[in-house]
Every structure is written in C-alpha cells, then in structure tokens.
Amino acid sequence: MLSDYTAHAKVILIGEHAVVYGADALCIPMLNLTLHAHVAYDEQGPILETEGYCGPFEQAPEIYNGIMYLFQELVVKRQQDTHCRLTLDSRIPMARGLGSSAASALATIKAFDQYFQLGLSEDGVTVLGNHAEDIVHGKASGLDFATVRSEKLVSFNRATGFNHIDGKLGAYLVIADTGAEGSTKEAVAMVRQQRDASEQNRERLDYLGVLSDQAAQAWVQQDVLKLGDICNQAQEILASFGVSTPMIDLLVDTAREAGALGAKLSGSGLGGVVIALTQTREQAQQVAQALSGKASGVWVEEL
Ligand code: MEV
C-alpha cells in the first residue's frame, strides 16, 4: 500500500518580532512551494529517505529529530509493521522562515496516517505536529504548523491563538531567498536588547504591532496600495533594529525599483527571505525577474 501527502510552505506577511511582545502576526500559506511525503513497503525498512540522507531513522541528522519522533509515535509505539520507507521530497529551503520543518511534520503525519490507516483526529494531528516542531525549534509558537495546514491567511497572537482570515486580497506576493539562513535566536535577542534600552525603541517596536493591525484591515478591504505602504514602513522599523542585512536591503531595493508597491524582510531577519507586493501578475513577473539575478530562489504567490 502506498501513501502520499503534499504540504506547503508559509511566509510571514507582517508582525515578526512584534508578535513576541503580544502583537498579531499575519502569515501567508505559500501554496506554490511544497514538500511531498511518500510511504511505501520496503523489506529493508524502516528507512528515511531525504535529500542528502537515506538510512535508518535513528541515524538521521539532527534536523530530522522531529520526523524520528513521529516515526516512534505513529509506527513503533502503535506496533505497526516497520518494513516501510518514508521519502521526503522537499522544494522548501530550510532555515529561511518558510516553515520547512512544519511542512515535513505535517506531510509525515498525514502519509503515515493514510498508510497505516490510523484514523488520527485533526486535534491529534495538531498535538503531534506541534510536539515535532518543539523538538526542532525549542518551544515553538505553533504559527508555522497552523499556516502549513491552512489555505487562508492566518492571524496569530501568542495570548489568543489563531484566526483564519477569509477572502482574497487580489494581489501578488513575490518571495525571494537571500540564500542565507536566518538566525531567529540571535535576531530576537538583538531586538530585545534594544527594546529594553529605551522607551523610544519600545514605542517604535510597538508601532510594528499597529502596522500589523492596519495590514489585517487593508487585507479585508483589499487595499493593496495601503498594504504595500505598510510593508515599507515595517521594513524601515525592522532595519532600524539591525535585523536587515546588505543582501536583504539589496533585494528590497531591487523589488521596489522593479515596481513592487512594498517590500520587506519576512521572519526573523539576518538572512531568510524578502517579500514584495504587487497589484498585478505582470508586475509580479517583472519583480520576480529583477530579483532572480540576485536571489537564490524566487517564488510568486497569488493572494
Ligand atoms: C520568526 O520567524 C518570527 C519572530 O517573530 C520570532 C518569533 O515569533 O518567535 C522573529
């Protein structure tokens, strides 16, 4: 018996860093950037096959510790036949804030669920996925796992949890990879230090939360121009906290010069990806083309 599942990536639209201090973050599912999990019988099993590794689950590199946990929970502890092979085929670059570990956890859970006919509930999937994410990232917020399961915009708040925001914006998002891994831990510490250093810094960071609320309103009102302007304001604030880099600045400038209505870093900064908003598909293609000479990867999502 075979089983397959495809999960998608995610990208933060706005609210990164401010979310740590209670603001909302808005997160977009990237339906065009995916990871595929496949489970099949293998008499040599159990085997995990991913890019760069093929062998027993227990000997896989540390980044697959979440997958190893899922294999233990779903297969070993449930006394299923371990003569199986899990193949993960991912197009999602790791450590860019694109939710690659959450997507691999979701696809693994769903593929094992189907293959062994486990009949997991949606709540069961959530508990397993969030635990796998905690193993990989320390205590994770759950934002990534919620967004890789959603086809809608997700609004996340640490205190109140998730909301799915209905409706399309009627615009396009270009996502460009700096090629550098973002360091969430370092970036969060940098911002915290500056926030604690002065009242003015604290107010500037709080304003990122205000921008996030305005962005949610602009989304619902399909006000793409306003949202572009909000993205530019957010980038200015994030850069003032030192989490932009010369490569991020270059991609942001390139996107704006090529016609983006707004552009900013997405995620922790210090690497990761840049996002750029355009009104039309043609503009998105122009921006993507301008970025493709400079970025390690470029994707376009219809919003
Ligand atoms: C990182 O993807 C987003 C941050 O806001 C950190 C966090 O929310 O844990 C920078």
Sequence-ordered SSE layout with sheet pairings:
Blueprint: E1 3-14, E2 25-41, E3 47-50, E4 53-55, H1 65-76, E5 84-90, H2 100-115, H3 122-137, H4 143-148, E6 153-157, E7 161-165, E8 172-177, H5 184-197, H6 199-220, H7 224-240, H8 246-257, E9 262-266, E10 273-278, H9 281-292, E11 297-302
Parallel strand pairs: 3-5
Antiparallel strand pairs: 1-2, 2-5, 2-6, 3-4, 6-7, 8-10, 8-11, 9-10
Bound molecules: (R)-mevalonate.
(R)-mevalonate is lined by residues 12, 16-17, 19-20, 97, 141, 184, 187-188, 267-268.
Features:
single chain, 303 residues, Ribosomal Protein S5, domain 2, Alpha-Beta Plaits, seven-stranded mixed sheet, four-stranded antiparallel sheet, binds (R)-mevalonate, GHMP_kinase_C_dom, mevalonate kinase activity, ATP-binding, ATP binding
DSSP helix fraction = 40-55%
Strand-residue proportion: 25-35%
Strand runs, count = 11
Order of helices and strands: EEEEHEHHHEEEHHHHEEHE
Q: Structural class of the helix and strand makeup? A: alpha+beta
Major sheet characteristics: 7 strands, mixed
Can you list the ligands bound to this structure? Answer: (R)-mevalonate
| CATH hierarchy, class of the largest domain | Alpha Beta
Oligomer: single chain
Task: Tell me the distance between the termini.
Answer: 37 Å
Globally, the shape reads globular
Low-pLDDT residue spans: none
Number of helices: 9
Residue-averaged pLDDT: 95
**What would CATH call the architecture of the largest domain?**
2-Layer Sandwich
Family: Belongs to the GHMP kinase family. Mevalonate kinase subfamily.
Domain GHMP kinase C-terminal: 220-292
Pfam families: GHMP_kinases_C, GHMP_kinases_N
Keywords: ATP-binding, Cytoplasm, Kinase, Lipid biosynthesis, Lipid metabolism, Magnesium, Nucleotide-binding, Transferase
